[in-house]
Design goal:
The protein is α/β, with parallel strands linked by helices and 154 residues long. It has four helices and nine strands, in the order βββββαβαβαβαβ. Strand 1 and strand 2 form a beta hairpin.
Length: 154
């Protein structure tokens, strides 16, 4: 059986290659992971918890919600409203909101969620994480081939 090679077609000065799947997407199990994000932790520092500040982050969250994973928001801000998420085209059926408690710290829950590899993780925090905790989050993200966004309020 002969392997089919992709044909290159030329239209004026544009070269197009037929693409069967996104080259930056890797499939692990049943979840698609963007290579650029897998195993990473991104920290975003915002000035306050006002709705306008949150609205600036929604396009980023919308992009993450297109993946086959859950979007888990750990310690979400009180001003987070369903209509705001719906208006940003975020599928609410794929969003989970989780708050830390006296038995489960934000850091502990975040590491556990990242290790499972079943969700993108958004963490809202007032104090951020120290260098050791950030390293542990990155290790957990690598292990689970997942991605975390830490939103730190200053």
């Amino acid at each position: 059986m002969l392997a089919v090679q992709p044909r290159i077609t030329r239209s004026e000065h544009i070269v197009t290659l037929p693409v069967k799947s996104k080259p930056y997407t890797k499939v692990t199990g049943k979840f698609a992971v963007n290579h650029a994000l897998a195993g990473k932790v991104t920290e975003i520092v915002v000035p306050d918890k006002e709705p306008q500040t949150l609205a600036m982050l929604l396009p980023l969250l919308t992009q993450l919600s297109f993946d086959q994973r859950w979007l888990l928001w750990l310690t979400p801000p009180a001003g987070l409203a369903k209509p705001m998420l719906q208006q940003a085209d975020i599928d609410l059926n794929k969003v989970m909101l989780l708050n830390a408690d006296i038995h489960h710290s934000t850091h502990n829950l975040a590491c556990r969620a990242l290790q499972t590899g079943t969700s993108h993780l958004v963490i809202s925090t007032e104090n951020g994480f120290d260098a050791k905790e950030m390293a542990e989050l990155k290790d957990a993200a690598r292990l689970g081939q997942s991605h975390a966004i830490v939103i730190r309020y200053c």
